[in-house]
Every structure is written in structure tokens, then in C-alpha cells.
Predict the structure.
Amino acid sequence: MNMIQNAKDQILHLTVASYEKAAAAGLLPQGVSVTPSVEIPKDTANGDYTTTYCLAAAKAMGKNPREVAGILRENMLLDGTYFTSVEIAGPGFLNFRLGDKWFADTVACIEDEGADYGCNDMLKGKKYMVEFVSANPTGPMHMGNARGGVLGDTLASVLQKSGAQVWREFYVNDAGNQIEKFARSLEARYFQLIKGEDAVAFPEDGYHGDDIRELARLFYEKEGDKYLDCDEQSRHDALAQFGLQHNIPRMRSDLERYGIRYDQWFFESSLHESGYVADSVKELTEKGYTYEKDGALWLKTGQIIAENLKKAGKSDEDIAKLELKDDVLRRANGFYTYFAADIAYHRNKFAVRGFDKVINIWGADHHGHVARLKGAMDALGLNGTERLDIVLMQLVKLVQDGEVVRMSKRTGKAVSLTDLLDMVPVDACRYFFNAKPETQMEFDLGLAVREDSENPVYYVQYAHARICTLLKALAAEGYTVPAARDVDLSVLSDDTEKALIKELAHYSVVVRLAARDYDPSFINRYLTELAAAFHKFYNACRIKGEREDVLLARLKLADTARAVLKNGMTLIGCSAPEKM
């Protein structure tokens, strides 16, 4: 339940009912229909909610907005509602003040919904896929994968909270040029182990990491020189498969350590082996979107994007400035490009598996690929413009003591996800990386392990642990958390108590916003604000030693804050510790 929306809906109902009563009495003209806004004012000293109804309707009524406001106020009945008073402000705003019923109902609602508090049906009946990380399986996962993992996983959770059926997927690029390069790199290291490092040149464009040396060593220990004199293709296939069989399970275990599990690991190779890549290219050809040049098959990417831009209202002159280019789908040697496979993969998501919406989490360096892929889906008749959404995330800088960290002290190599999780707790990694996707971020390694209020994850977790400690202490004195119906919440009259309940009510709104904007960082900011509201309440309002009705009401409020803090932390994949 969304108690904020309930309050807004009730204001609209009260205002319309007041107008109809006044119109029936001849005080206002009949037949006026408006849809005004109801908002929470920045300064709640003048009221908890305000509506622009009188401003919106005054012209049609032929009256001054303040005059309309006065008539509506006189004809408004607040008995039994969430509000105790309505006041006129400024040019004709109606400001409403919340009463005890709304505060009590909010606490009761959170109690009733429990772990489901914050759920909504905004996306009910919709089938979503979130594809994220999809790191190249030829080496360790890096910092960009660490950020993308959290953003994708948390976004998927937020969408689920909003009613969507969500599928998490990792796309394994186990085919194409990068796998051939992977095989050649392993081959060179394998030959060097047998013939000596100086006897075999390493390919300049190969993968130079120590992980390649280690994989080659493991392959040699298993196979010996068995693949030294066999045909190149058999050797490359064996090396690539051996490397992938080691790397992919390692990626799985690293991500599971990070709290991330997928519904499916989808292999690019399956698209080639099934003929689906060739079939997708054939479909584009039959629709007239390909042509041959220099022995290769090209997609009319420029034409497709230009057509979409025209539909969006762009002028021919503006489109010409973009210098749009076409893309190769099948090279002259007969091999399909990565773009062709990507088109087939996304066609599979829509045409075969029937997802209503597909969301990909990509690094910002892939921004040029967005319009091309959406356009290809449009060309296939799959409405990629509307159904395919790309969340672009900016780079991450690791910082320690004010200096940018590029290498792991342990390994002397670029910092990988494994290195990061060895240095920083998973909760801190998830909380820090769940930042606004489009902003560049600095991950402060020192801050992430600090145990004070400067560390945002510690600050939020401490609020939860503080409440759990309080509950345990009061339980030792014989006080247990009462049900909402068994406590008089009207005694919660302090400003910090009311502010805390208002903050608790915002959780449902925040989850909807996070899902709507594909921005799960809304949850982080909310948790920090909720923790702050709790600490203010706790410091201002004594619980132990108060008279029993006040003690029980405040105990109930504290426990309600604990429940919502836990819901939010669980949603972003962090723990809610009971002691710290």
C-alpha cells in the first residue's frame, strides 16, 4: 500500500466532493471539471500536502482562486479522513495537515505487509529481461563488471518489487574473434612451455595477462605435448574450450560471492550452431535491409537509423550531420560479425522468448552501439525503439588515500572483481556501486572499510543494529513489540516521530521511482535518509523509562523503522546486521 498516494487521492476526493456540494448549493457554477496536482510542499510548516485545484478551476468558474478556495474550505468535511485541517495559502492553494489516523494507518500498513512492504503492481503482467555483466570469458572480470553487476542485479530486484516477471541473464561471448585471439594466446604460451619462451613469438594483439600463462600451464600439465603437432584448428578448439571451462566457472563463483545469480547463462555459440545467426541475417535480407559490397554482406544501418530519426522529428539536415554508417554482417570470408550475432541474440529475446522489455546494462563506451541495435530490431519488426532499453554506466575510479589505484598490491595486476572483494566487504561493494549509473564515480577503498557515520553503508546498517539492540534490551525488561492495533500511536506527537513515519511512508514511492527510471540508487539515498530520520528520533525521544503507553508506541515505531531498513537493504543485496 502507498500511503502517500492514498493521502493524495483522498485530497482530490475531498476537493471534488466539496466543489459538488458548493455547486449544488449555487455557490459555484456547475459542470467544471479539472485535474489539479496534489504535492508535498518543500516547506511543510504550511501543511503536509497542497493542491492547485482552486488555481486550475478559477478561470472556468469566473472567480478569484482565493474566493473559490474559501468556498471549498467552508463546504469540506474532514471527519474520519486523514486530515485535521485545511488552510488557504498564497494565490489560492489549499494546504492540508495530516492527523493521527494517517500516521497510525501507515504504521499498521507496514506491519501488515511485512517483507512485501514496498511492492507495487506498476509492471504487473510484464515480462522483463535484464542482461548484465556479460564479461568477455577470456580473462578475469574487472571493475566495470563489478559496477554493472550491482546495477543489473539491483535493477532486476526493483522491477520485481514493481510487479514485473524478471529474468536475469549473462551472455557468454564464446564465439568469434575474441575466442580465436584467446586460443592463439594460449597456443603461444603452450608452445613456449614446450620449446622455450625465446623460441616462440607471442602475438602482439594477444592477451598478455598472467592468467593466460596459468591456463597454458594447466593445459600442458593435463595434455603434455599431445597438441604440439596436430592441425591448428583442433589445437585452437581444444585450447579455447579448456580455457573457457576454467574461466566461466570462476566467473560464476566470483559473481555468486558478490551475491549475484542468473536465471540463465546464454552462450553465443548456440546461436551459430543452431543457424539462428544465419537465419536472422536472412530475415533482414528478405526485408530489403542488406546489400553486398566487396564480397561482404552489409546492413543498411544508416538508412534504418535515419528513418527512426525522421519519425522522431529530426530534420534531414540534422541527420546528414551525423554521417551515419552501415555495418558488416557477414565478412568476405563467410564468417558472421559480432554485430550479426548480437542482432540474432536480441531477436531471440523478443521473437522466441517473448520478453515485453529487454534492458541491457552497458559501459558508456558502447553508446554508439545503442541506436544500431535498436534499429536492427526495428528492421526485423520487433519494435526495438520501444522494447529495448540500454542503461549506460560511467567508469569507476578506485581511490585510496587520495590516490587512484590501478594495480592490485597482492597481484601487481589490474584490480579485478576478485581483488576488490578481497579488500572490501561485499555489502560495501554493493552499496557503493549502486550509484546513479550515468555519473562517474570514485570508489574510496578507505571509506568503504571505515566503521563510522562517514561510511554510508555502515551508517545505515548501524541504524538497523541499534534498533535490534534496543529491542533486545527492552525484551529483557519484559517489553515486546506490540501490534499496531494494540498501541496508542496518537501519543507520537514529537516532530521527529512524525518525520520518521513520513519517511517510512516514502519507501513505496521510492521503489516505484527506481523502477520507472531504471535507477536503483534511489534506494541507497532513501536508506540514508531513513537512517538519519531514525537517529534524530532516537536522540530526541527517550524510550526506556518513559510511561508505558509512550514507551510502547515508540518501541513500535522503532521496530517499524527496523523492518523498512531491512526491506531496503535486502532489496539492494546488502545484509541487515543485528549487532555491530
Q: What stands out?
A: The mean pLDDT is 95. The CA atoms of residues 438 and 502 lie 29 Å apart. The radius of gyration is 30 Å. The first strand starts at residue 38 and ends at 39.
